[in-house]
């Protein structure tokens, strides 16, 4: 459980992009009083109108320049492919000594594309909260999204440790556990734990959709737990995931190569009737699942804790 902060961690936080991650940050900032004021900006009038209607941020601004003026923390919460254009838009308007961070799912590309655009007078500390849902937009956020989840900070060489400690305090106040990690290692770890699994889910749902001998109606009606989980993942925002694969190309291709090798080995074991291979493989993977539950990163309730109504089976 998060304990309310005794004093704001930042005087003014500017959220650029007002989707799932930014809106969850705002509600969690409010929950614990982590900022004196939060300003917000999104590129579309529709999102800004929604944000004003639901009270998302203390002040919704009509330009990124207005939102970042006087902010001591600026959070870039847009798709990875849009980070650089947003950074060049805000760069001339940043307060001296401000910290700029981001929440993008890929880190090396953000460092390479955003870093050179920012003035030397600001601290640039990339970050990535490992928390999300398949929903997007300003109305999808909730205050508990980051509770007991990891947030990885990726400070570049020469970053002021005091600025990093302040950003760490914010994420801890948002409910997250914080660790620092090197950018390339981050991108490899996330290729294993998030990016490639998403690609596999997209593929499996695409296969089911293409398969003429099983109708779409049957797929929906009889979808077992495994496939339902794939469909949930494959419902994630297309822009965000397009950008993830375009910017974490090397690590994703490396993991995909290994995945393909393992898949061929399993395919061969099925064809040749090698039950020992299948049994040993599934025994090893079961242990990984147990480790995730023991680490508190998921529930061991049957069917991921879903309440199942008989009519829906
Ligand atoms: P989201 O709900 O889709 O919101 C994206 C926001 O970015 C919207 O406000 C959108 O503005 C704005 N935007 C989109 N394209 C833009 C462009 N070309 N230029 C300027 N602004 C643009 O996204 P999200 O899930 O919050 O993701 C934001 C970041 O967090 C991404 O970098 C993603 O990789 C990362 N992340 C996501 C998750 C997750 O599970 N969703 C988890 C961890 C990290 P409009 O509304 O005006 O279109």
Automatic annotation (TrEMBL):
The gene is tyrA. Belongs to the prephenate/arogenate dehydrogenase family. It holds the Pfam family PDH_C. Its EC number is 1.3.1.12. Residues 11-300 form the Prephenate/arogenate dehydrogenase domain. The lineage of its organism: Bacteria, Pseudomonadati, Pseudomonadota, Alphaproteobacteria, Rhodobacterales. The keyword Hydrolase does not apply. The chain crosses the membrane at residues 12-29. It catalyses: prephenate + NAD(+) = 3-(4-hydroxyphenyl)pyruvate + CO2 + NADH. GO terms for molecular function: NAD+ binding; prephenate dehydrogenase (NAD+) activity; prephenate dehydrogenase (NADP+) activity. This is prephenate dehydrogenase. Pathway: Amino-acid biosynthesis; L-tyrosine biosynthesis; (4-hydroxyphenyl)pyruvate from prephenate (NAD(+) route): step 1/1. It comes from Pseudosulfitobacter pseudonitzschiae. Gene3D superfamilies: 6-phosphogluconate dehydrogenase C-terminal like domain (1.10.3660.10), NAD(P)-binding Rossmann-like Domain (3.40.50.720). Keywords: Amino-acid biosynthesis, Aromatic amino acid biosynthesis, Membrane, NAD, Oxidoreductase, Transmembrane, Transmembrane helix, Tyrosine biosynthesis. GO terms for biological process: tyrosine biosynthetic process.
